[in-house]
Write a structure and sequence with these properties.
The chain has helices spanning about 5-15, 30-50, 80-90, 115-125, 140-155, 175-190, 205-215, 235-240, 250-265, 295-310, 315-320, 325-340, 340-360, 365-370, 375-390, 390-400, and strands at about 20-25, 50-55, 75, 95, 110, 135-140, 165, 195-200, 225-230, 245-250, 275-280, 280-285. The chain has 3 domains: about 5-110 and about 250-280, Response regulator (Rossmann fold); about 115-250 and about 285-290, Response regulator (Rossmann fold); about 295-400, Arc Repressor Mutant, subunit A. The chain has 16 helices and 12 strands. Helix 5 (about 140-155) links the parallel strand 6 (about 135-140) and strand 7.
C-alpha cells in the first residue's frame, strides 16, 4: 500500500509536469441547484484552464471517479461517511459543497448559510402580514433543523408556536406508496393548523407535495395556506399550480467560490479554518405567497402600493393620496401589523432591492442607488450603514465572499 504522503507527492509531481489541472466535479446535475453550482465551477475553470470531469446524476447517485483517474482536485457534495472515504482515498485536495456536517469529516467546505436562509424565509412571510407559521421538512436531519431554527426564531416575536412536520422522502421503488402515505399525513396535519398560515417546505419537491395536499383538502393557496420552498428549482416551481415561491440559494456563487478555494489548495495554499457559508440573495416570489394576510383592506392597499412603487421617489404622502385615510391612522395601523411605520416600510423595500443588486451584480453603487429609489449614493450609504452597520461596498464584498474571506 502506498503511503498517503508519498501518493500526494507523486500526484503533485504529475500535476507540475502538465499545464492543465484535472478536476472532478461530483455534484448532482438533476436539480436546478446542482446545475447552477456546476455552472459556477465551469465559469471559473474557463479562465483557470482546467479540464473537468463532471458526474451526471441525482443526489442519491453514489459518488465515483473513473477507473484510473489521476486528477489534481475534487469538488463534491460529501453528504455521507462512505462518500467522505471515497474522496479521501483519492489523495488530492477536495472541497465539500454540502451543507451536511459529518462527524470527523473536515474537508474545506463552501455551502449555504442555512440559518440565514431560514431567517430570510421568515422575513418574506412576515412582510406579508402572517402571524401563523409552520414548517414541512425532512425528519431527523440536523441540517434541516438549522434551517428550521433560523425560521422559527425569526417568527417567534409574533408566533410562539411554529409546528414542524417531519417526513421521510423515498425516491426509489416505493416512491408511489411513500407519496400516498405523505399525502395522507399532510392532509391530517393541515387540518390542525390555524388559518391563514404560512408554511416553509424544505425543498421544491416537498413544496409541490404540500400544494397538492392543499388542493385535496380544498384549501386555497396562498389565501389560506401560503407556501414557500427553501430552494428554487425554477422549472419545477413554475410548473406548479399555483407557481411556487422559492429562496434563491446562490448556488452558482457557491460553485465559483468552491473552485476558487480548490485552486488555492492545489497551489499549496492553506486550508481555511472555518467553512465559507454564503447567505441567499433573496426570494423569488411567485403565486404561492402572492397575498397579504391583512384583513383591513385600506392597510392591505397601502402595503401593496409601497411594494409596487418603493423604487420610485415616493414618500408617505404619496401613499395617503392612494389610500384616503389620515396620516395618524396609517402610522398606527402599520406599527400594529408590521411593527414599523410606512416610511420605514418604504426604506425596507428599497434596501432589500439594494442588497439583491449588490449581491447579484457588479453594477456601480450610484446606479444601484438610482434603481432602488435612493436619490443619491450618499443617501444610500447613510441608510445602509444605519440599518446594517456596513457600507454597501463592504456588504458586496462580504456577500460575494472574496477568496480572502475563506482564509480568516
Amino acid at each position: 500500500m502506498v503511503e498517503p504522503n508519498r501518493r500526494n507527492r507523486s500526484r503533485r509531481r504529475r500535476s507540475s509536469e502538465r499545464s492543465t489541472p484535472h478536476v472532478a466535479v461530483l455534484v448532482d446535475t438533476a436539480t436546478g441547484w446542482g446545475r447552477r453550482l456546476v455552472r459556477g465551477v465551469v465559469n471559473y475553470s474557463q479562465h483557470a484552464n482546467w479540464s473537468l470531469w463532471i458526474k451526471s446524476g441525482g443526489q442519491e447517485t453514489p459518488l465515483w471517479l473513473p477507473p484510473g483517474w489521476q486528477g489534481d482536485g475534487i469538488i463534491a457534495r460529501i453528504g455521507t461517511p462512505a462518500a467522505a472515504r471515497r474522496i479521501r482515498a483519492a489523495g488530492v485536495p477536495a472541497v465539500n459543497i454540502s451543507a451536511i456536517e459529518l462527524p470527523d469529516v473536515d474537508f474545506p467546505r463552501v455551502a449555504t448559510d442555512l440559518r440565514a436562509a431560514g431567517r430570510l424565509a421568515a422575513e418574506h412571510l412576515l412582510d406579508r402580514g402572517f402571524v401563523q407559521f409552520a414548517y414541512y421538512g425532512l425528519a431527523h436531519r440536523p441540517y434541516v433543523d438549522h434551517h428550521y431554527e433560523g425560521f422559527a426564531e425569526t417568527v417567534s416575536p409574533v408566533c410562539c408556536d411554529c409546528p414542524f412536520y417531519g417526513t421521510t422522502f423515498d425516491s426509489g421503488a416505493g416512491a408511489r406508496t411513500a407519496w400516498n402515505i405523505r399525502q395522507r399525513g399532510l392532509s391530517r396535519w393541515l387540518k390542525t393548523l390555524d388559518k391563514p398560515v404560512a408554511v416553509v417546505a424544505w425543498t421544491t419537491e416537498l413544496g409541490r407535495e404540500l400544494i397538492h395536499a392543499c388542493r385535496r383538502e380544498g384549501l386555497l393557496v396562498p389565501e389560506q395556506v401560503a407556501v414557500l420552498a427553501a430552494d428554487n428549482d425554477e422549472l419545477l416551481c413554475e410548473a406548479c399550480t399555483p407557481s411556487l415561491s422559492g429562496i434563491e440559494l446562490t448556488s452558482e456563487r457557491i460553485g465559483l467560490e468552491a473552485a476558487r478555494l480548490l485552486d488555492r489548495l492545489m497551489r499549496g495554499g492553506r486550508v481555511p479554518k472555518r467553512p465559507l457559508l454564503l447567505e441567499p440573495t433573496g426570494v423569488v416570489a411567485r403565486q404561492s405567497t402572492d397575498t397579504l394576510a391583512v384583513e383591513d383592506p385600506d392597510l392591505a392597499r397601502a402595503i401593496a402600493f409601497i411594494r409596487s412603487h418603493a423604487t420610485e421617489p415616493i414618500q408617505v404622502q404619496d401613499v395617503l393620496r392612494e389610500v384616503p385615510v389620515s396620516r395618524r391612522w396609517l402610522e398606527r395601523r402599520f406599527r400594529e401589523v408590521l411593527g414599523r411605520g410606512p416610511a420605514a416600510e418604504i426604506r425596507r423595500v428599497r434596501l432589500a432591492r439594494v442588497k439583491r443588486l449588490l449581491a447579484e451584480t457588479e453594477m456601480p453603487i450610484p446606479q444601484v442607488a438610482r434603481l432602488a429609489g435612493f436619490g443619491s449614493r450618499e443617501y444610500l450609504a447613510a441608510a445602509f450603514k444605519a440599518e446594517f452597520n456596513l457600507t454597501p461596498r463592504q456588504f458586496r464584498n462580504q456577500t460575494q465572499a472574496r477568496s480572502a474571506a475563506g482564509e480568516e
